[in-house]
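Can't attach files on this board, so I'm pasting raw text. These are the components:
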Amino acid sequence: MTEKAIEISNLKKTYSGGVEALKGISFDVEKGDFIALLGPNGAGKSTTIGIICSLVNKTSGEVRVFGHSIDKELEAAKRCIGLVPQEFNFSQFETCKQIVVTQAGYYGVPRVIANERAEIWLKKLSLWDKRDTPARMLSGGMKRRLMIARALMHEPKMLILDEPTAGVDIEIRRSMWEFLTELNEAGTTVVLTTHYLEEAEQLCRNITIINHGEIVENTSMKDLISRLDMETFVLDVDRVPDSLPDMKEVSFRKRDEATIEIDVPKEFALNQVFHKLSDKNINVLSMRNKSNRLEELFVRLTEKA
Amino acid sequence: MFSKESLIALQSIFIKEVTRYFRIWVQTLLPPAITMSLYFVIFGQLIGSRVGQMGGVSYMEYITPGIIMMSVITNSYSNVVSSFFSAKFQRSIEEMLVSPVPTLYILLGYIFGGVSRGLLTGIIVTLVASQFVDLEVHHWGILFFVVILTSMLFATGGLVNAIFAKKFDDISIVPTFILTPLTYLGGVFYSIQLLPEFWQTVSLANPILYMVNAFRYGFLGFSDIDIVHALILLSVFILSLFSLAYYLLTKGIGIRS
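---
Top answer:
Structure tokens for the assembled complex are below.
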């Protein structure tokens, strides 16, 4: 039997103000998985993560982390998790090295080993030069990386990241993707919440979508993408006439004076589209897939719920 | 419960706390030295010389133990209340909450941090006092025991205050409106025997009176109240506040949603 990294059963959370954040969700995460937890703002993602990491008290239900119940074996469950939260949650006055070494100490890692690990992770995340810099002096991207380094100091089996790339530039985002992929390939289970659907599509094998405190989808990324029945292509053309071709199955849209967008059914032969464009003396110079496929599905699923 | 990992975690919290108040020593260690020097100059030398003797010793000698105790109380309390509330405010408390540190060790880590600052400022003020008066110790054991218990009590009190605090104002209300008046009325500058009988009885309800007098006994060998009574009361207060703080932390009140 495959060991589960997370087993959540009928998890409910009602906040003291009466807000029902989770209405009895159930889902599992396999060991070694790279899973995306998606949902609109206020859907219940951060509450779910908060309960798994014991920052939020659950109302009812059961959560197990690598087989350890958070009700009966909380300490063992906590040792398996490294958390990278959404908000910066370190002392702004401490240096990077102090932050990561102290965190290791909370997990019982002796100081000598903690210092060695600090060097490893701060170097890997390009923060070693800033080791003696107070956290408040770091840029937003550096602060995010510092939280990743801190979460890895006790070598957890699972890393949970709550919107880790929010507000960081493309270069840093890409380097974080590479880092997380390497980490996952080395055996660490990764759970990621993000608003960048392209990020989820690129990185994750499985996906769980939460909306209004309920699971609306829990499947593999491949399966979800295969459910898309339409694809959108962007065509760079030599000219865009006023009247675009008219086809029953395909819709044409003018984006600008040199670009047309087309929505095509998945199994439709594109030759017919090119014929129609040729008839109108439009030459296609290049073509690319528009990468908003998951976004369409996400909107569809969360609107439906 | 007493695993090696837990002790390392306790050590980490303690080092973090000590590092914090040394980092801001101008705000934490220097002010007691300056404030208490002013007390010694104004109340001890200028006014004290006109007061004459109290309890058979000079007024300066009489107020010294109380002034040292005042700095111990203020600093052990304010260290924990500001450190724990800052951790809540900056959300760095989550670093501990997600980790497997047992609640008892979080509690002890903060208390030890507060006790260490209380003792350190106590030593600083004693050194300042030694410039104004020849200090002699009547009973080292009582002195040591009382100062440790007092700083533990107020460090724990600071933690309870910080748990309930929701804004910065909330961490200054107790020190300003409760702690300072109780300290000034706790026999630091006078013997309660100078008060009318009614106010003597009222003063006995002030816990700080017991700590100041027990500490004074350690230095001078006399006190307005019974030492055993004072030590029992201190222990009861510590146990009560410690149990309350432990309960609040375990339940996650003020720190978990």
